[in-house]
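Deliverable D5.2: sample structural annotation.
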Amino acid sequence: MTHASICFCSCHKTQESLLSSASGYNNYRGILNWCVVMLVLNNARLFLENLLRYGVLVDPIQVISLFLHDPYSWPAACLLIGSEPVGFLVHCINMAIMLTFPAAVVLLVPSMTPVGGAFVLGIYTILFLKLYSYKDVNMWCRELSTVKAKKLARSLSCPSAQHLNGGDRKVCYPGNLTIRDMYYFVFAPTLCYELNFPRSPKIRTSFLLRRLFEMLFFIQLLVGLTQQWMIPIIQSSMKPLEDMDLSRMTERLLRLAVPNHLLWLIFFYWFFHSSMNFTAELLRFGDRQFYKDWWLVYASVCVCVVYEFYEEWWCTVLKDCLGLHFYKPLLRRGFSKMVSQSAVFFLSAFFHEYLVSVPLRMFRLWAFTGMMAQLPLAWFVGRFLRGNYGNAAVWISLIIGQPFAVLMYVHDYYVLHFRQEAD
């Protein structure tokens, strides 16, 4: 090609600017990297500002005092140890006292700390839901044993000549009624009992160690961020709450929103991913869908799909239990979908309040109200917001709603215990 021909080559053509919608350009990875860099730099400044203002507040030794008020008095540990195996054989009596007895101990024993009480009540609540499912499934098996016994799924922990896919043995009702089968279900990361749980082929050592490392790392991170970031903000919020200074209260609420939400996300990953996968791997429990992509949740229709909103939003473990043993039985008894959905949310709201109010020894219904508020939220989002707007509304409710409830509980607890003592 000659020099003259090069000079007359066209270097222009009809095309749109990259940032125009008509250009079809969609590779914004560089901008995303810029956002990440800006986010890291901004949070680094906040981290440095926090250290300069408060110093290093992380103290692992203080965590022990959250569970043990007196080194020689361990009421929380005694509650966990006190559940006798014979209780599993008398389900009705055991479930009747499963919620009331621990609550009474937490309320009446002065040395019980709020964190220790919440931990124990959480364990007993999980056990209550597991035993309820165990009772229901075996009752259904008894009802169907004369007609469909050969079609039932069967327990993996009982011997039989028949095998599932992969060679795992199975038995049929009542061969599943053994202590071994019971304890497998008690420790399995699920609230829904089956006579035959899916099993993974083997225990993956590398996977198990990764989950263990995540559990240890994130629990330390949760404790450190709580002591270093959240507690100073909460302590500085007491004065504006007492003075009912609306502007300063709003400022404290917004300051608390980011660390509270970050801790909530870390806790979600620590519990529903790391911890439950660790337990599932140890037990070779095959069903690992402990959660769905709730971060994409939005209600796209109207009030009739509140249950669909709940199915996408709640963790799979709790949703399956309430849906199988509470929602569907209500429908079979002739209740409408709306009434059944409201009853499911009411039950969940009760357990939320039970796990907060009883350990704090005060009843303010903030957690209960926040959970029941999901019903009108689902209706509003489904009726007036669609797509990304609905998803943004759910995120806003999470980021703002939770720290508001935290501030209310902390304020009421402070007024009830510490200010009265000072007066």
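Annotation notes: The chain has a mean pLDDT of 76. The longest helix spans residues 205-243.
The annotation will be released with the project's public dataset once the embargo ends.
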